């Protein structure tokens, strides 16, 4: 065609600019396997929860920063932040080699503790998560991504971690909770927690057989537990239920 829209002979057209008459159509899966692929194939530019095809399962994943060339995947925690939190307990015993039986402990960072000193542990805090960052390449959670988290106190606490500086006896006060129900994911049995700190560290990890709920009690003098570096917090896809 000329610039003014008139048809001309094909012999006047350079072959290198001629479009293909036949092109191979897209033969991949009907669903995208990542937020980046979704952005590329569908042209979606809005953040939100989208159904992706991951390891032969369709699961809902929150795609963040879809306006950029490298969007990120997050899991929206259907059970909410009250079921997905990490706490480093702030109270410290005046007699750290004791373990008082009568202690009032709740979600507050500074509950009544008549056996405790007045100054709180500097690393104390409680962080609650509404979404967690998923590394879609190796299916591990970025424990220190706080994009969709809020914290009480001065410190952000990594997901699936807990600790305290309360007692050298075995009575840890740090707590964490993971509840992945209705997300299409569960924690892999490969995931292990390790204790960090001095010789007086303790952990008690309670896993449901289904793998979607895990509670932890960790601490010591001073102690912390977190998923081990060798495994990370590894997830498995089970599909939306």
Distinctive features:
single chain, 241 residues, mainly beta, six-stranded antiparallel beta sheet, five-stranded antiparallel beta sheet, 1 helix, elongated
Q: How would you summarize what this structure contains?
A:
With 241 residues, the chain is mostly beta strands.
Explain what you see.
With 241 residues, the chain is mostly beta strands. Among the domains are: 35-76, no CATH class; 83-126 and 161-233, no CATH class. The chain contains one helix and 16 strands. The chain has one helix at residues 35-42; strands at 48-54, 57-64, 72-76, 85-88, 125-129, 131-135, 140-142, 149-152, 162-164, 174-179, 185-187, 193-197, 201-207, 213-220, 223-227, 235-237. It has a six-stranded antiparallel sheet with strand order 8-5-4-10-14-13, with no helix packed on it. Strands 1-2-3-6-7 form a five-stranded antiparallel sheet, covered by helices on one side. Strands 9-15-12 form a three-stranded antiparallel sheet, with no helix packed on it. Strand 13 and strand 14 form a beta hairpin. The longest helix is centred in the first third of the chain and has 8 residues, at 35-42.
Indicate the low-confidence ranges by residue numbers. Answer: none
Q: Per DSSP, what share of the residues sits in E-state strands of 2 or more residues?
A: 25-35%
Count of DSSP H/I helices: 1
How is the biggest beta sheet arranged?
A: 6 strands, antiparallel
End-to-end separation in angstroms reads 56 Å
β-strand number: 16
Radius of gyration: 26 Å
Strand order of the largest sheet: 8-5-4-10-14-13
Helical amount: under 10%
What structural class do you assign from the helix and strand content?
mainly beta
Which term fits the overall shape?
A: elongated
The mean pLDDT is 90
| Helix and strand run | HEEEEEEEEEEEEEEEE
């Amino acid at each position: 065609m000329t610039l003014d829209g008139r048809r001309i002979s094909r012999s006047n057209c350079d072959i290198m600019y001629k479009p293909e008459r036949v092109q191979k159509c897209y033969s991949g899966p009907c669903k995208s396997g990542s937020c980046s692929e979704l952005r590329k194939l569908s042209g979606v530019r809005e953040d939100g929860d989208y159904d992706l095809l991951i390891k032969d399962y369709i699961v809902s994943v929150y795609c963040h920063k879809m306006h950029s060339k490298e969007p990120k995947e997050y899991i929206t925690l259907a059970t909410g932040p009250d079921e997905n939190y990490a706490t480093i307990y702030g109270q410290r015993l005046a007699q750290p080699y004791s373990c008082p039986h009568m202690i009032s402990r709740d979600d507050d960072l500074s509950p009544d503790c008549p056996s405790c000193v007045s100054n709180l542990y500097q690393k104390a805090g409680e962080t609650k998560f509404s979404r967690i960052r998923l590394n879609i390449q190796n299916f591990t959670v970025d424990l220190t991504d706080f994009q969709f988290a809020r914290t009480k106190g001065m410190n952000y606490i990594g997901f699936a971690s807990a600790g305290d500086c309360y007692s050298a006896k075995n009575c840890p006060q740090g707590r964490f909770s993971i509840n992945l129900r209705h997300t299409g994911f569960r924690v892999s049995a490969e995931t292990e927690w390790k204790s960090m700190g001095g010789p007086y560290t303790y952990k008690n990890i309670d896993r449901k057989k289904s793998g979607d709920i895990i509670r932890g009690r960790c601490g010591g003098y001073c102690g912390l537990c977190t998923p081990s570096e060798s495994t990370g917090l590894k997830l498995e896809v089970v599909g939306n239920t």
